[in-house]
Design a protein that fits this description.
The complex is a heterodimer. Chain A is α/β, with parallel strands linked by helices. Chain A has helices at 17-27, 42-48, 62-74, 85-101, 127-133, 143-160, 170-173, 196-199, 203-226, 247-255, 272-281, 294-301, 320-331, 358-368, 400-410, 427-443, 483-489, 505-517, and strands at 12-16, 32-35, 55-58, 79-84, 107-113, 137-138, 164-169, 176-180, 230-233, 240-245, 261-264, 266-268, 284-288, 372-375, 420-426, 449-453, 497-500, 522-526, 542-544, 563-572, 578-586, 606-608. Chain A contains 18 helices and 22 strands. In chain A, strands 3-2-4-5-7-6-12 form a seven-stranded mixed beta sheet, sandwiched between helices. Chain A has a five-stranded parallel beta sheet with strand order 14-15-16-18-17, sandwiched between helices. In chain A, strand 6 (137-138), helix 6 (143-160) and strand 7 form a beta-alpha-beta unit. The longest helix of chain A has 24 residues, at 203-226. Chain B contains eight helices and six strands, in the order βαβββαβααβαααα. Chain B has helices spanning 17-30, 78-83, 104-107, 117-123, 133-139, 146-154, 162-173, 178-202; strands at residues 5-12, 34-40, 49-57, 70-75, 88-97, 127-131. Chain B is of the alpha/beta class. Chain B has a single domain, classed as Pyruvate-ferredoxin Oxidoreductase, domain 3 (3-Layer(aba) Sandwich). The chains are: A alpha/beta, B alpha/beta. At the A-B interface, strand 8, helix 10 and strand 20 of A face helix 1, strand 2, helix 2, strand 5 and helix 3 of B.
């Protein structure tokens, strides 16, 4: 929503939490903003990059992005960094020492927790980083608060020379609500002041910083007790009071409009006295927090009687629909019957690869090769674990396909002695955290075939640019990494490096078949772009000649969503075996002519589509 | 309608569900309402399920619509309209496109697509109006007008006049020239008329 940029102060806008934070980052006079894309955090930096007068970059991973932000904050400028929850696992090495040096210019780190796992490999509670790293945590409850707390966080960061974590969740990042924006206040950096005792964290220096960190904890807790971000709404129904934060606050207010509520916006260090104050008002206190019983545990340790995860779920999002029955049970009440009819049973509709996606050829081929153990990675190509390919056996963390493949090779049991180990990783994931694993594999003489799927984009998060496609965050030209040279420099033998067009199935098949037999590290790079980015060019669509289709169904195994079954049948083979037949058509309005499906077509029934009227391409799906 | 209006827009990643909901939200805001819009859209661009929640009124707290409390369900695809019936309140209405978008898991023979989603919805007792937005768009000369047809379809089921929504739709196309504005105006009216005719037939 670039249109926000010139918006005058005090005007109201429908903004997502991500857009609201971006606006505040710009208004706060931030000079440097860095991130690696990750749902649900991605749009923060995408949006920031549309504002003038600041530097924004896609970093290669979250650790580097945080380090770039730290450098800018050391230099006295305001800096911002954002990531999804798992990104902080990567960046935390920097965070855990950053807390000792502190910052000069304000530094705010927005962490987006994917509560409910809409697009992540796990569900983590980033509020723990505040406790672990001894840094304050702010938790907005909607877009307006995300905007305002970002501005407050910069002020607090400079007041205490401490990085501040803005903990968001999908229901903040991606929810659009009304925000009143303000004006930009330019911020002049103080410049870098050399101070080795503070910035060079060797044991002698670091040891002296630790007591300062603990003192800061105490000071911040005292401030949290009086902060306007933490407030009690006394309510009228004193049977149950709630202590809550983030989007859970909205659910509590919706479900129990008359209940006393302590809302924590400045939630770490937690204001224990404020919590006691609420407890004194009510018969029972329920802590409503997503995800872990973090505050609940702290309050219990403080001797404050609270109820929490004993009646509320430990996993997934909270909502009024979750809270109402739990509290009714606590009070021994019976809820009025819901007006909802029972949910109707229906097929699932999991995400699919796109029509003509270059990964289709890779997974179709892998599904046709026997005796493989395939360690996978994180990106669109994780979908290769699903139907029809089922050609990915593990998915853990960014870049993990490399180390896990080597471990599978070195740790293979007797039953796997004839299995070949394959690793599949995308271009951006490889640059994020895969390179080191490949180096380790080469150095330790592994026997792994690596498929490096270079589609020139961070596909799953929306096709962001990266060092592999030669464009920076603004789409301007940037140095482009040569993957073949890179893996060669990491020690892969040149004869073991192949660059293959993934739409040429026979070549891909032959290359994989040959390389898995070689007891060495091989890297097969596929080089065709994501179909959703501008590098992709559509070709003439195909259609099925229904007279020629024999119903063999080979094309369906490619997994392209443009292929649809028109009728099914059965045939008894000469051997007496009964086989299922599926006759198909291609939805020509979405086919972009990649030609993958016609390669396994036995009767050669797929030909170029001859339209009777000009073709209208439809983005996304097939309209049938 | 209750103090807060709950509208659920459902379909498949890539159909424009989220944009349609955003335009509905803009219309609500233009009238001075508070509004919140949220999705469950894991990997929406990849053909997965998308359900977009819009709540507006004097003050909106939780962004999520509680099951059994949606006033209107706008379905961009027939099976998806069926999937979310439990979200409707008693007396709520489904406005659905009859388009059938069959996913790969069905083509692979792993699951069945219901023969008649409209009949399945009727069996629940919920009120439902069906129309063929895709064909309407095609007849107007551009399949991409489908989203505007869908917005036209809901226009007479909102607690405000259709012209407010139409204004918000057309604003989106203003920069793209008068021809496109006119086409979208026709698509919007065609959607309205289709629902009107289908409702008259049911009455």
């Amino acid at each position: 929503m670039a249109a926000v940029m010139p918006a005058p102060a005090a005007s109201r806008h429908l903004l997502s939490g991500n857009e609201a934070v971006a606006r505040a980052v710009w208004e706060a006079g931030v000079k440097v903003a860095a991130a690696y894309p990750g749902t649900p955090s991605t749009e923060m930096l995408e949006e920031i990059a549309t504002y003038p007068d600041l530097y924004a970059e896609w970093s290669v991973n979250e650790k580097v992005s945080l380090e770039v932000a730290i450098g800018a904050a050391y230099a006295g400028s305001r800096a911002f960094c954002c990531m999804k929850h798992v990104g902080m696992n990567v960046a935390s090495d920097a965070l855990m020492t950053l807390t000792l040096t502190g910052v000069s210019g304000g530094l705010v780190i927005a962490i987006a927790d994917d509560v409910g796992l809409s697009s992540s490999q796990n569900e983590q509670d980033s509020r723990y980083w505040g406790r672990f790293a001894h840094v304050p945590v702010f938790e907005p409850a909607d877009s307006q608060e995300a905007y305002a707390m970002t501005l407050d966080a910069f002020a607090l960061s400079e007041q205490f020379q401490v990085p501040v974590i803005l903990r968001m969740t999908t229901r903040i990042n991606h929810v659009k609500s009304i925000v009143t924006v303000g004006e930009r206040v330019p911020h002049t950096g103080a410049g870098f002041r050399k101070d080795p005792a503070r910035y060079v964290m060797v044991p002698g220096n670091a040891g002296k910083r630790i007591p300062l960190m603990f003192q800061r904890d105490r000071d911040l807790r005292a401030l949290a007790e009086t902060s306007p971000l933490n407030f009690i709404e006394p309510g009228s129904d004193r049977r149950v009071g709630f202590i809550t934060s983030g989007p859970a606050y909205m659910h509590v207010k919706e479900a129990f409009p008359n209940a006393p509520v302590l809302k924590l916006g400045f939630s770490c260090p937690a204001p224990f006295e404020k919590c006691r104050e609420l407890a004194a008002l009510v018969d029972q206190v329920v802590v409503v927090e997503e995800v872990e019983p973090l505050l609940e545990t702290e309050l219990k340790a403080q001797g404050i009687a609270v109820i929490g995860k004993d009646i509320l779920p430990l996993q997934g999002e909270l909502s009024p629909a979750v809270l109402r029955p739990a509290i009714a049970r606590l009070l021994g009440e019976v809820l009025p019957e819901s007006e909802a009819t029972a949910a109707l049973q229906l097929f699932p509709r999991p995400p699919t690869m796109c029509v003509a996606c270059p990964h289709l050829g890779v997974y179709y081929t892998l599904s046709q090769v026997r005796n493989l153990n395939i360690s996978g990675d994180i990106g669109c190509y994780t979908l290769g674990a699903g139907h029809p390919w089922q050609a990915m056996d593990t998915c853990v963390s960014m870049g993990a396909s490399m180390g896990i493949a080597l471990g599978m090779d070195k740790g293979r049991g007797e039953s796997d002695k004839d299995k070949r180990v394959v690793a599949v990783i995308g271009d951006s994931t490889f640059l994020h955290m895969g390179m080191q694993g490949l180096l380790d594999m080469v150095y330790n003489k592994g026997n792994v075939t690596v498929l490096l799927l270079d589609n020139r984009a961070v596909g799953m998060t929306g096709g962001q640019d990266n060092p592999g496609n030669g464009r920076d965050i603004h789409g301007d030209e940037a140095p482009r990494i040569d993957f073949a040279k890179l893996v060669s420099a990491l020690g892969v033998k040149d004869e073991r490096i192949h660059v293959v067009n993934p739409y040429e199935l026979p070549v891909l098949f032959k290359t994989i078949r040959e390389e898995v037999k070689v007891p060495d590290v091989s890297v097969i790079i596929t080089d065709q772009p994501c179909v959703l980015i501008k590098d992709y060019h559509k070709l003439k669509p195909y259609a099925v000649d229904e007279d020629k289709c024999t119903g063999c169904g080979n094309c369906i195994d490619v997994g392209c969503p443009a292929i649809h079954v028109t009728r099914r049948g059965k045939e008894v083979k000469a051997s007496g075996r009964e086989v299922d037949l599926a006759f198909v058509r291609i939805e020509s309005s979405v086919c972009t002519g990649c030609g993958l499906c016609l390669q396994p077509c036995a009767p050669k029934a797929i030909e170029h589509y001859v339209p009777s009227a000009p073709i209208q391409f439809v983005k996304g799906g097939c309209l049938a | 309608m209750s103090a807060t209006t709950n509208i659920l827009v459902v379909g498949i990643g890539g159909q424009g569900v989220m944009t349609a909901t955003e335009i509905l939200a803009e219309a609500a805001i233009a009238l001075g309402h508070d509004a919140k819009k949220t999705e469950v859209a894991g990997m929406a661009q990849r053909g997965g399920v998308v359900s977009s929640h819009l709540r507006f009124g004097e003050r909106v707290l939780s962004p999520q619509i509680t099951p059994g409390s949606a006033d209107v369900l706008l379905g961009f695809e027939s099976a998806e309209a069926m999937r979310w019936q439990h979200m409707l309140k008693k007396g709520g209405i489904t406005l659905m496109n009859t388009a059938r978008l069959v996913p790969p898991v069905v083509e692979l023979g792993l699951f069945d697509y219901p023969d008649d989603p409209l009949a399945e919805i009727r069996k629940t007792g919920n009120k439902v109006v069906a129309f063929d937005a895709t064909t309407i768009a095609q007849e107007l000369g551009d399949i991409r007008l489908g989203n505007t047809v869908m917005l036209g379809a809901i226009a007479d089921h909102l607690p405000f006049g259709a012209e407010v929504l139409l204004d918000c739709v057309l604003k989106r196309f203003a920069r793209k020239g008068e021809k496109l504005v006119e086409l979208n105006r026709r698509a919007f009216e065609a959607g309205r008329a289709a629902v009107g005719a289908a409702e008259a037939a049911l009455a």
